[in-house]
């Protein structure tokens, strides 16, 4: 009976993570190679498709660093409820998924048994922005190096998201403090 319960619980966890509307039924493959050394560091979430694990989060950041034994550390930080709310931190690990462009990763916040896809679908030439998703079209993140990109930067990023086939009406814009 125990193995059955473990499988059933695992299925429920996976179902909870993949539920939600699809914003792109034909997710594209990543467009550009990702040079890991340039992708590392701090990113600010400009917008996202709402998801269970970030519900109510503002001032969201993601920070990537090389781990001593290989792979990447992933540190996601948010403020619960408002830009001044309590801090919530989730730490995980990522590893390259082996694609030719180096733009696909496997990420886990719950140990190696629950790996999720993380695809850098597109990025700025100077790594000033990144569009991140995965194969189901249910998850999408727009990341920038600046917590408050200019209107021109926001417009260009949204145009690129739309060009990739994503429903921009599903985006939830993340609030950040005037000064991080």
How would you describe this protein?
- The chain has one domain (36-173): Beta Barrel (Lipocalin), CATH 2.40.128.20.
- 19% of the residues lie in helices and 36% in strands.
- Strand 5 and strand 6 form a beta hairpin.
- It has three helices and nine strands; from the N terminus they run ααββββββββαβ.
- The longest helix has 17 residues, at 2-18.
- It has an eight-stranded antiparallel β-barrel.
- The radius of gyration is 16 Å and the shape is globular.
- It is of the alpha+beta class and 180 residues long.
List the helices and strands and how they pair.
Blueprint lengths: L1 H17 L17 H4 L1 E9 L7 E10 L5 E9 L6 E10 L7 E5 L7 E8 L5 E5 L6 E5 L6 H13 L7 E3 L7
Antiparallel strand pairs: 1-2, 1-8, 1-9, 2-3, 3-4, 4-5, 5-6, 6-7, 7-8
What's the short version?
The chain is α+β, with helices and mostly antiparallel strands and 180 residues long. The chain has three helices and nine strands. Residues 1-17 have low confidence and may be disordered.
List keywords for this structure.
9 strands, 180 residues, alpha+beta, Lipocalin, Lipocalin_ApoD, lipid-binding, eight-stranded antiparallel barrel, Lipocalin_Blc-like_dom, cell outer membrane, globular
- Spatial strand sequence of the major β-sheet: 1-2-3-4-5-6-7-8
Q: Report the C-alpha radius of gyration, rounded.
A: 16 Å
CATH homologous superfamily placement: Calycin beta-barrel core domain
H-E string: HHEEEEEEEEHE
Number of helices: 3
- Multimeric state: single chain
| CATH topology category name | Lipocalin
Q: How much helix, percentage-wise, in residues?
A: 10-25%
Mean pLDDT: 88
Number of strands: 9
Structural class: alpha+beta
CATH class: Mainly Beta
Strand content: 35-45%
Number of domains: 1
The backbone outline, from C-alpha atoms, is globular
Uncertain residue ranges: 1-17
**Secondary-structure arrangement, i.e. CATH architecture:** Beta Barrel
Largest sheet: 8 strands, antiparallel, barrel
The first-to-last residue Cα distance is: 51 Å
């Amino acid at each position: 009976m125990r193995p059955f319960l473990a499988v059933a619980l695992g299925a429920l966890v996976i179902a909870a993570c993949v539920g939600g509307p699809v914003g792109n039924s034909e997710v594209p493959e990543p467009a550009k190679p990702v040079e890991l050394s340039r992708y590392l560091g701090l990113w600010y979430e400009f917008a996202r498709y709402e998801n269970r694990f970030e519900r109510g989060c503002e001032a969201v950041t993601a920070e990537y660093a090389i781990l001593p034994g290989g792979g990447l550390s992933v540190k996601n930080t948010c403020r619960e409820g408002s830009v001044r709310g309590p801090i919530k931190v989730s730490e995980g690990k990522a590893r390259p998924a082996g694609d030719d462009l180096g733009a696909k990763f496997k990420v886990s916040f719950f140990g190696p048994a629950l790996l999720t896809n993380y695809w850098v679908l597109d990025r700025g030439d100077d790594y000033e922005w990144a569009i991140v998703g995965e194969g189901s079209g249910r998850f999408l993140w727009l990341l920038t190096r600046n917590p408050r990109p200019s209107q021109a930067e926001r417009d260009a990023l949204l145009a690129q998201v739309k060009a990739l086939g994503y429903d921009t009406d599903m985006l939830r814009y993340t609030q950040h403090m005037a000064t991080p």
